[in-house]
Amino acid sequence: MLLNLHVKNLALIDEADVYFRDGLNILTGETGAGKSIIIGSMNLALGAKVPKDLVRHESQDAFVELTFEIDNDAQKAALQELGVDVLEGQVILTRRLVGGRSISKINSQTANSALLKDVAGVLLDMHGQHEHQSLLYKKKHLEILDAYGKAVIGPKKEQVAVLYGQYREAKERLEKFTVDEDARQREISFLEYEINEIEASAVYEGEDEQVEARYKKLANGKRITESVQEAYALSGYEGGAGEQFGRVCHALSLVAEYDQALAALQDQAAELDGLLNDFNRELSSYQQNMQFGEEEFYETEKRLDELNRLKSKYGRTIRDVLDYLESRKQRLADLTDYEEKKRQLEEALAQTEADYKKEAAALTMCRKQTAEKLTEMIRRELADLNFLHVSFEMIFEKLDHYTANGVDEAEFFISTNPGEPARPLGAVASGGELSRIMLAVKTVLAEKDSTGTLVFDEIDTGISGRTAQMVSEKMAKIARTHQVICITHLPQIAAMADAHFAIEKSVRDNETETSIRILNEEEIIQELSRMLGGAQITDAVRKNAVEMKKLAETTKLLQVEKT
What we know:
58% of the residues lie in helices and 17% in strands. It is an alpha/beta fold.
């Protein structure tokens, strides 16, 4: 559940700190008091786009923080899958607006908007002022069905998506392979040319490194010769280091018997003399074997150019060139045995298509079975919302193409009067009816969902009287198992509140501010009276407010007794 909303320097809010309660949290206020800012602040913390001129004072930072208490294991598991830790039973989402930029965090760890939205889907369900309009679109209907039946539909959808990917790959392979006869012959000719060119070079892996090393040596032959000769002379035994170190060894040998330390030094000197002698001998051998012929240099340079040309044409490395050769050989073999290879690809495509169609049909069947349960549940909820003789069903049509989501197109059909045929929901329902239908849908989904908090922003659009009373009872019913936060302008719904908050606008120091506070019992009656009577609150209006609150409390007690 949402424990706390903290807002600072946002729109008309200087600073607000709201502690929500279990059950039904109602937010009311005069038109223009800033009710939408509260929902907007929540959306902002959950990754929504930042509207222009949202920061109250440009010189200051704006800040929104939501603190959630994690109520169940399903939520914990879902958050862990997203990489979010639950710290001491809580998750804290923050968003700070600084100089035109925004920084979002989850438990003090920076988070991107995609992760915020995923986490938001686990923590709460937000129903905005115009969300019921989404029921006008058929795509939304299938989403509702899949959400309701995700336990059984979800795995089948995943399998269909996998098979669809395999089908697309098989189809693309066949399309790329299929060529006309003239094109096939031209490609065969070109492949044979490329294969012959690479094979004729007799290139092998690592040859370019060997040839480059040999070329480097030959290109610097003169410098190598001069340096080796100088090194040999300096380290030799004819006036060089070898002769000098021999004298060192002789001098130490004359006194080594008198001191153990000198004896050890003599041993080291003898060892170094041996190493120097070996070094000088190997240097002499290298000098004798040095060959830097012009012809060898020319052939090496020519081979290096050939290798570099192959790499520039067929790959960055010799390994790439050899891999390219193998792929060209395979392609040539396929085109040479074209009809057989094409038959194999066609069979593979037919098999993947058959597998897809089988799983897609199973998904359709699962969806239809689930739709019967869903529409029956929605019918019951609609009856509670003053749809007395409603017929509600889901009609399926088959798409003329394959998708990763199967081949289904589904739409809700409704009839609100006996004897009338069911028609598409979007063609029948009014704005007020759509609000109630969406509430019915949310009620059904809430029973299947682990989301702890439901937020409704003016779901009471277009309703009044008896219908408003039934909507209020439905909200109270949902609030028995979920935390509900609802902005409303109807006193029937407000009276059902377990916690009632007033959103108020005032002027202080020539600046308009919006604040939010929880009401006590007397203030609740005053607010209900305002909602009932408008500007003039008479004794009769106040009495009506008291009666309405008592009736709401009685209704909630009866709901508990029925369960």
